[in-house]
Design goal:
Elements: E1 18-22, E2 29-30, E3 33-34, H1 38-52, E4 56-60, H2 77-87, E5 92-94, H3 100-106, E6 114-117, H4 125-128, H5 131-138, E7 143-146, E8 168-170, H6 172-186, E9 192-196, H7 205-211, E10 217-220, H8 222-231, H9 246-259, E11 262-264, E12 268-272, E13 281-285, E14 294-298, H10 300-311, E15 315-319, H11 332-347, E16 351-355, H12 357-366, E17 374-376, H13 380-386, H14 392-397
Parallel strand pairs: 1-4, 1-7, 4-6, 5-6, 7-8, 9-10, 9-15, 10-11, 15-16, 16-17
Antiparallel strand pairs: 2-3, 12-13, 12-14
Length: about 400
């Protein structure tokens, strides 16, 4: 199938060429050590392939929110050694990502060399997509590769601007993300199920409105489900709930009805009087929640029914946990349904795509992240894609 963007397969004669590669190196540091290297590992296929093909690989990335100022604690110099150890090959650091000093440093590199350029956000023009900064960055390279889907929702100089002034390609990580997302919602195999969880309906209104038009089954969990239950006259006690969004919830249900999308809300729930680890709990029908109790997870009967829904689907897209998964025992529903999805994926009957920080954490907790068809490390970009929005960094690659 012809892709709407060029990939590394379309790159010819890269030996000796300077390739600016936009990656996401924005990883957590604790006492100088990388505490989660997921994003760094995602860069390896593109960076090593280009270096092995003889390109001079110049990595562009942001780190933190320096807002146009140089901050030593946000310098990408801090990541050069950890990244070099992960790659198993030398990595140079260049103290800027634009300008004469950067050009002079790049000129010393040989084919196959890899260098990390300094934090793009040390320049005020990065987040403004300033044409002058774009030109200054472009002067360092011959070709541009965007491999950072997680930053593709931002129209910045290094994520969008460069694609308009240099021959542009999607890196392997970006390509994998876009292929997976196309399978999940672009042209999926039906029936399609979506799991949408999280604390508040207000943060995912656009997601819900978009999904009811495109999926066959919408499974709503987390605090969001309480808002929908309350809109249907259920007393949710002290549960997290946006009572002022009752009419919005009703409108989404009506839209789903018109589109032939079945909305699944929990009918049994796990409740407690305190939000803490391992408090006394009850599993009750949603109509039996006491005024001093809060709903903190989906109940076992509902989870079993949801598993049966997935067994009849061919595609699953997942964003957000079903309960307060970070506190035991309110991770049980999320873990159980995730394991069902993983088993179905392993059988070859389900294409499963998940994304978002909490979702990745929940799937890791369930021990099944590696068993899904694809797990996106992107947060904001994944959410905007689920809302049906065009991502500037992706649009620019289509030329």
């Amino acid at each position: 199938m012809t892709k709407p963007f060029k990939t590394l397969d379309d790159m010819r004669d890269v030996a000796g060429k300077r390739v600016l590669v936009r990656e996401d190196l924005n990883v957590p540091l604790a006492d100088g050590a990388v505490s989660d290297d997921t994003r760094l590992r995602a860069t390896i296929p593109t960076v090593t392939e280009l270096a092995d093909r003889g390109a001079i690989v110049l990595i562009l990335a942001h780190f933190g929110r320096p807002k146009g100022q140089r901050h030593p604690d946000m310098s990408l110099a801090l990541l050069t050694r950890p990244y070099s150890l992960l790659l198993g090959r030398p990595v140079r650091f260049i103290d800027d990502c634009a300008g004469e000093d950067a050009q002079a440093a790049v000129a010393t590199l040989q084919p196959g060399d890899i260098a990390i350029l300094e934090n793009t956000r040390f320049h005020r023009g990065e987040e403004k997509n300033d044409p002058e900064l774009v030109r200054a960055m472009a002067a360092l390279g011959d070709l541009y590769v965007n491999d950072a889907f997680s930053a593709a929702h931002r129209a910045h100089a290094s994520t969008e601007g460069l694609a308009h002034v240099l021959p542009s390609f999607a890196g392997r990580s970006m390509e994998a993300e876009l292929d997976a997302l196309e399978k999940a919602l672009g042209s999926p195999e039906h029936p399609v199920a979506a799991v949408v969880g999280g604390a508040k309906v207000s943060t995912k209104l656009d997601v819900l409105k978009h999904l009811v038009e495109r999926v066959d089954h919408l499974i709503i969990g987390g605090g969001m489900a309480n808002t929908f239950l309350a809109a249907r006259g259920v007393n949710v006690g002290k549960s997290l709930c946006e009572h002022d969004l009752a009419s919005t919830a009703d409108a989404i249900m009506a839209a789903a009805d018109r589109a032939g999308c079945t909305v699944h809300l929990p009918y049994d729930v796990v409740v407690a009087r305190e939000f803490k680890a391992n408090p006394p709990t009850r599993t009750v029908n949603v109509h039996e929640v006491s005024g001093d109790e809060m709903i903190l997870d989906v109940g076992p009967a509902a989870v079993e029914a949801l598993g049966d829904v997935l067994k009849n689907c061919r595609t699953l897209v997942w964003n957000g946990p079903l309960g307060a998964f970070e506190i035991s025992p309110f991770d049980i529903a999320t873990v159980a349904l995730a394991r069902t999805a993983a088993a179905l994926t392993g059988d070859g009957s389900l294409v499963s795509v998940a994304g978002g920080g909490d979702t990745v954490a929940a799937l890791n907790q369930a021990g099944v992240a590696a068993s899904f068809t694809f797990v996106s490390t992107a947060g904001g970009a994944f959410l905007e894609w689920m809302e049906g929005k065009e991502l500037p960094g992706v649009v620019a690659l289509r030329g």
